[in-house]
Amino acid sequence: MSEQKQKTTLEKALPGLLIAGSLAGVGAVMVGLLSLAPTVDDGSGPGGPLAAGQPSTVQIENAGAFVLPPTVGPGGKSGLTPARIDAPPPLAAVPTVAPIPAAKTTKAKVKAKPSRIKIPKIKVNSPVGQVTVDLKGNLGTPSLSKPNQTGWYRFSPLPGENGPTIINGHVSTRKGPAVFARLSELVKGDNIYVYRSDGKVARYTVSGIEQVSKTTFPTKRVYGNTEGAQLRLITCGGVYNKGAHSYKDNIVVYATLSKKKV
After folding, report:
1. Of 18, 73, 180, 253, which is the most buried if we count CB atoms within 10 A?
2. What is the rounded CA–CA span in Å between residue 71 and residue 182?
3. Is 170 annotated in the active site?
4. For residue 165, what are the β-bridge partners?
5. In tens digits, what is the pLDDT along the chain, a chain of 262 residues?
6. Given the residues 14, 186, 236, 252, the one annotated as active site
7. pTM confidence score
8. Total domains present in the chain
9. What is the CATH number of the domain that holds 217?
10. What is the spatial distance between Cα 215 and Cα 26, in angstroms, rounded to a whole number?
11. DSSP class of residue 261?
12. Catalytically annotated residue among 23, 24, 75, 170
């Protein structure tokens, strides 16, 4: 599939992502003329870790800040704050490389898919499944019975190819921490490796990370088309709402392709 066709596919899928609804862990937000954003399920559910009286491993920072930074910050526990809603994705932390060329035929492209994600700093070594949106525009998440699995939005680009690849995962389940429990610890410059079923490997370098309210989710910044190959990792964070069985915020990691094996 050509780069142009790939962008067109994501652009066609974007309206579905923007339909009002509460997705697994991401909150809804109105961005200009865009519709409401999807959510990423926290995966805690009734009887989750906080419902059981256990403290959250992710704490909200800069709560109630009136003036937001004009850009996404470097992230990490000391700098996990949201940027202005109209801020662009953060600039690459290191020199980038050209995207992995897309498969020439649709048939060949369908066969390839992400198979595993590794994040050395936070000891993530996880299989990657596939998620999509339902008829209401809600973005799916991995099964709660598989807390170590992540989910690739199958209508986003293959890892390493041009555009924003979307991968989400739970921060916790009723049994305890899940695959992205430590996602908020990442900072600018950390590496993320995504392996594909066709043997290709994409190394991304974190360019920024933010914690955003689900009511002001930066839809365009997260899901909008990009120049070059980029990656978005999404999970839940902040304060746990026992009544709604959900976290109030999302953690969003932005990364750019810095090395590839083809």
Report:
1. 180
2. 23
3. yes
4. 231
5. 444 544 444 544 553 443 333 333 443 332 332 333 444 444 444 444 434 444 444 444 444 445 899 999 999 877 899 999 999 999 999 999 999 998 777 666 678 999 999 999 999 999 999 999 888 777 889 999 999 999 999 999 999 999 999 999 999 998 899 999 999 999 999 999 999 999 999 999 999 999 999 889 999 999 999 999 999 999 999 998 887 778 999 999 999 999 999 9
6. 236
7. 0.78
8. 1
9. 2.40.260.10
10. 9
11. E
12. 170
Question: By residue range, what is the domain housing residue 213?
Answer: 3-261
Dihedral angle sign, alpha carbons of residues 252, 9, 24, 147? negative
Q: How far is CA 59 from the centre of its chain?
A: 18
Query: Rounded to the nearest 5 degrees, what angle is found at the Cα of 120, between the Cα atoms of 130 and 171?
Result: 50
Q: Token pair 């921490």 is at which residue?
A: 177
Helix ranges (DSSP H) in the chain = 3-17, 106-111, 219-223
Give 33-66 as a DSSP string. T--PPP-B-----TT-TTTTTPPPSS---STT-S
Contacts of 1 (CB under 8 A, 6+ apart): 9, 102, 103, 106, 109
Q: How many helices (H) and strands (E) does the chain have?
A: 3, 10
CA-wise closest residue to 163 among 235, 214, 99, 233? 99
SS3 43: coil
Tokens of 244: 């709604």
What's the CA dihedral at 243, 244, 249, 250 to 10 degrees?
140
By DSSP bridging, strand 191-196 and strand 172-173 are: unpaired
